[in-house]
Amino acid sequence: MGNLMSKEHIFVAACGHGDRRRVRNLIRDKFDVNIKGFGGITGLHMACHNGHIDIVKELIQNKVEIDIRDGNDQTPLIIACFQGHEQVVKILLENDADVNATNKNGATALMGACLNGNSIIVSYLLQRHAQIDAKDKDEQTALLLACHEGHEKVVNILLENNADVNAKNKNGATALMGACLNGNSIIVSALLQCHAQIDAKDKDEDTALILACHKRHEKVVKILLENNADVNAKNKNCITCLHMACHNGHIDIVEQLVQNKAEIDIRDDDDQAPLLIACSQGHEKVVKILLENNVDVNVTNKKGATALMGACLNGNSTIVSDLLQCHAQIDAKDKDGDTAFILACHKGHEKVVKILLENNADVNVKNRNCIGGLHMACHNGHIDIVKELIQNKVEIDIRDDDDQTPLIIACSQGHEKVVNILLENNAGVNATNKNGATALMGACLNGNSIIVSYLLQRHAQIDAKDKDEQTALLLACHEGNEKVVNILLENNADVNATNKNGATALMGACLNGNNIIVSALLQCHAQIDAKDKDGDTALILACHKGHEKVVRILLENNADVNAAGKKGATALIAACVNRNRVIDFLQHHAQARTKEKDEGQENMIKTLLKSFADVNARNQNVGIALADFLHDQAQARTKEKDEDLENLIENLLENNTDNNERNKSVVTALMAACINENNVSDLLQHQAQTGAKDEDAPLAASHEDHENIVKILLAYNANVNDITKDGVTALMAASWQGNDTIVSDLLQYHAHIDAKDKDDQTALMAACSEGHKKIVKILLQNNSDVNATNKKGFSALMAACVNGNSVIVSDLLQYHAQIDAKDDDGQTALMAACSEGHVKVVNILLEHDAKVNVSTRKGVTALMLASTNGHDIIVNDLLEYNAQIDAQNVAGDTAMMSACQKGHVDIVKILLDSKASVNIRNRQGSTGLMLASYCGHIDVVRLLLDHKADANIRGITGETALVLALIKEHYGIEKLLTEHDAKKENYRHSNSNMDPSTSDDNDFKFPSSSAAPDLKGATRSFPDESTETKLMPVERTINSTTPVNINLEMAKHFAMGNIHIQNPQCDDDDDDDDDLQENDAESTDDGVKK
């Protein structure tokens, strides 16, 4: 067998290399000429692929099977036609090769020849009665493919032989559409002469004219218009040719369309008119043409936005002037009440603002949130615009809905120069917003010492209080702004002022843990033992937070170590709750004032025992603190017996501690003991309630992987289906941890197998996500819902594919998991596996007929994901399963573009070898070459140029690959492009915004050899919500300054840094760099654990 395999490979390789002598010798040795190698490939396939005519003749003479098929059902004739070997094709036809045989994709030899563009082979095949209108699986015909590829001679031969000129593929695309997308005017003319339906529509209702306008093929547009194409035809989004041309800024096409009676104010689905689109894109000449043709200058979209607003957002002063000359309504408002002036101020377009003011724009106009241009400019720090507005008599203390003044906003944002200008122009330094917050408070929260000094020099009231009685000093101490605190103290701020909860600046600093501020406050005579409304002192708060240095400073300054709050909590108890080392300091200082001997850790235990003697009488949290303390000590325990800890346990039980007493934010004694396996039985024997609920149920022992604990709890009739506040059950926890024994036990006690948590996750999803094969099997055998999805549509199969566990994937498919199910973003299991690079999983899915060309909501396919993430093996596999190689996402990017941008040269080569379109363009007009040049991938650039990539194609803003390379200073690429005839021209080095890419990296996060490329090159959803084509000025709300409560009840929020004065928010604009996120601090009463 080994020798046979060896000869088999030798024979196939010899045929492939054209080694006639070796082939003859093997045939003389009676070798089977039809034997197949890897992938079902024979010697004849190899010889036809490489054009070795002598080998082909030799094999035919030795009775080779002329129509033998490989693993993809390719016959030798199909291969020879695809490769363009004319003489080989002729010999095969002369020996009666089946001219109409098809491969797995339904592609014929004629289709292969048409794709290849070999007119001689096409003629041979037609003479042998090749079916001229045969269709592959995507319903592509030979003519469709030839038109798409731009092979003029082949198209003429097909038309002369009466090919169906109006045949459509499965997407409804015709040969004329393919030629228009390709921009081949000769083919377009030939098709029209043969009565191609000029206004035929595809499934997206695009016509040939719409596609030609989208692709900017001026000559083709002219031909179509001369042949009476419907100039006002709309696609399914009501987008017309004029919309397309205006978006792309193609002046000549716009002129042609207008001359041919295009409806100039025509609207799309969002009521966008061509003028709105042109203005938002900044195409000055296009706007001029439209204005000259009496376009409605005040047309609005669904959001009420006008062309003037679009131009102001874009910052194009020329367009703004042109619109105003044509009587654009300068103070028109959109649905949010924004005007062109407000938007220009928001974006910081100084020149535009000046033009608007010169044309009498209302300088004090407000939107529906009472926000004006000055608010916007102050929020964003546009200093020159602020000056311009002041010169134009803007109301300096104008207020919004929350009574915010421009000064308060500028201070909160830390814009020093803006603050200075406002103060010089007599802005009200002590103005307050609805919550009583002042500019000084905003500056203190922001931590800007320069602004604080400016305000104090202008006599800002240093001890002013907001509605919660917070002062500037209280806020600065909470935020930990040392420099600001020092300035306030130097200016005699009241160091002992309290807010409505009785909290002082010292308490805020102690909660924050800032020992420098604590020291500064104490030096200024801060009352060290002051108490808030809960009776807590600075020392208690510092102990609660575990700030050792602060505790040390307070003790050194004679803080009362035995002071207790209203609920009986002392500093010692607060420290115990958080189980920190502050206990050491407290124990050391407890008797320091009477100079008694420090007995250290030994006395600490006795003190704890005494403190916990009557748990319920003193503090409901102390027993819980004890349980937590026990847990920590138990984990640190050595093999030696710890008598003190035993005494603590006895004390807890003998004093009838309510083991189920719980606090909303603390675990019960039983729950803590569940983690410490040794104490469970004791607690249960003292009748602890096994069904107690909290953040972790008793059966959360499942999460800790304690089989014995689970058995004990089940024996005491624990509720097997108890859930946490997040909806998690014991079965979910055990499935996540991977303990199959616990899973089996829980199922025997009737655990709900398909219970869902708050995110709709099931136990099966958890097990699949973590790769626990055995548990997945158990759950499936117990009829778990294999197709359940979480709130985002994510299934167990998707989780397994992300994880890359092929065994689990196979098991799920055996239990009828829906292989092509989509999550809320349109992602499938195959996409997940392709994105993560799990080859074995991908193969399993493909073998189970997963749809390879399905796309996400953003048009991303599995091939794009694999190409983006550099998984070359998967790219090959997908192509073998007929992945559409030139499919485009909503941004117009293809798999090859993604690979070019990421620098995956091996994948780019695979795609190019599989006939990927090298010069296809995305919505920015960028090609793979431009992307690779911009990103500095010289090997990719070299490869693309070797495959005839056009180095002089321009993006929609006019940039070429060479310009992009120069912008990023990729001089090696510049040299390479120049050697390939790239045209050198002037460019601006500062144009760093000329990024040719359109797709967000998030589009490519999880989430072919076919002879049938998709002709759907135009972006169907254009223009979409991701572009600025839709002028939708969004809500711009400036939130009021939120007061801060520095008290014990808010300790948790202080620690997390959640409580602060809300920065004023001017908008929620589409642009990421202007997106001012809200961070409302909710004052939830979590209570402090003592």
Automatic annotation (TrEMBL):
<dbReference type="InterPro" id="IPR002110">
    <property type="entry name" value="Ankyrin_rpt"/>
</dbReference>
<feature type="compositionally biased region" description="Polar residues">
    <location>
        <begin position="989"/>
        <end position="999"/>
    </location>
</feature>
<feature type="repeat" description="ANK">
    <location>
        <begin position="534"/>
        <end position="566"/>
    </location>
</feature>
<feature type="repeat" description="ANK">
    <location>
        <begin position="726"/>
        <end position="758"/>
    </location>
</feature>
<feature type="repeat" description="ANK">
    <location>
        <begin position="237"/>
        <end position="269"/>
    </location>
</feature>
<feature type="repeat" description="ANK">
    <location>
        <begin position="270"/>
        <end position="302"/>
    </location>
</feature>
<feature type="repeat" description="ANK">
    <location>
        <begin position="891"/>
        <end position="923"/>
    </location>
</feature>
<feature type="repeat" description="ANK">
    <location>
        <begin position="858"/>
        <end position="890"/>
    </location>
</feature>
<feature type="repeat" description="ANK">
    <location>
        <begin position="204"/>
        <end position="236"/>
    </location>
</feature>
<keyword id="KW-0175">Coiled coil</keyword>
<dbReference type="Pfam" id="PF00023">
    <property type="entry name" value="Ank"/>
</dbReference>
<feature type="repeat" description="ANK">
    <location>
        <begin position="336"/>
        <end position="368"/>
    </location>
</feature>
<protein>
    <submittedName>
        <fullName>Ankyrin repeat protein</fullName>
    </submittedName>
</protein>
<feature type="repeat" description="ANK">
    <location>
        <begin position="468"/>
        <end position="500"/>
    </location>
</feature>
<dbReference type="Pfam" id="PF12796">
    <property type="entry name" value="Ank_2"/>
</dbReference>
<feature type="repeat" description="ANK">
    <location>
        <begin position="303"/>
        <end position="335"/>
    </location>
</feature>
<feature type="repeat" description="ANK">
    <location>
        <begin position="374"/>
        <end position="401"/>
    </location>
</feature>
<feature type="repeat" description="ANK">
    <location>
        <begin position="138"/>
        <end position="170"/>
    </location>
</feature>
<feature type="repeat" description="ANK">
    <location>
        <begin position="825"/>
        <end position="857"/>
    </location>
</feature>
<feature type="repeat" description="ANK">
    <location>
        <begin position="792"/>
        <end position="824"/>
    </location>
</feature>
<feature type="region of interest" description="Disordered">
    <location>
        <begin position="1061"/>
        <end position="1090"/>
    </location>
</feature>
<feature type="compositionally biased region" description="Acidic residues">
    <location>
        <begin position="1066"/>
        <end position="1090"/>
    </location>
</feature>
<feature type="repeat" description="ANK">
    <location>
        <begin position="171"/>
        <end position="203"/>
    </location>
</feature>
<feature type="repeat" description="ANK">
    <location>
        <begin position="924"/>
        <end position="956"/>
    </location>
</feature>
<feature type="repeat" description="ANK">
    <location>
        <begin position="105"/>
        <end position="137"/>
    </location>
</feature>
<feature type="coiled-coil region">
    <location>
        <begin position="631"/>
        <end position="662"/>
    </location>
</feature>
<dbReference type="InterPro" id="IPR050889">
    <property type="entry name" value="Dendritic_Spine_Reg/Scaffold"/>
</dbReference>
<feature type="repeat" description="ANK">
    <location>
        <begin position="435"/>
        <end position="467"/>
    </location>
</feature>
<feature type="region of interest" description="Disordered">
    <location>
        <begin position="984"/>
        <end position="1033"/>
    </location>
</feature>
<feature type="repeat" description="ANK">
    <location>
        <begin position="501"/>
        <end position="533"/>
    </location>
</feature>
<keyword id="KW-0040">ANK repeat</keyword>
<feature type="repeat" description="ANK">
    <location>
        <begin position="759"/>
        <end position="791"/>
    </location>
</feature>
<feature type="repeat" description="ANK">
    <location>
        <begin position="72"/>
        <end position="104"/>
    </location>
</feature>
<feature type="repeat" description="ANK">
    <location>
        <begin position="39"/>
        <end position="71"/>
    </location>
</feature>
<feature type="repeat" description="ANK">
    <location>
        <begin position="402"/>
        <end position="434"/>
    </location>
</feature>
<dbReference type="InterPro" id="IPR036770">
    <property type="entry name" value="Ankyrin_rpt-contain_sf"/>
</dbReference>
<keyword id="KW-0677">Repeat</keyword>
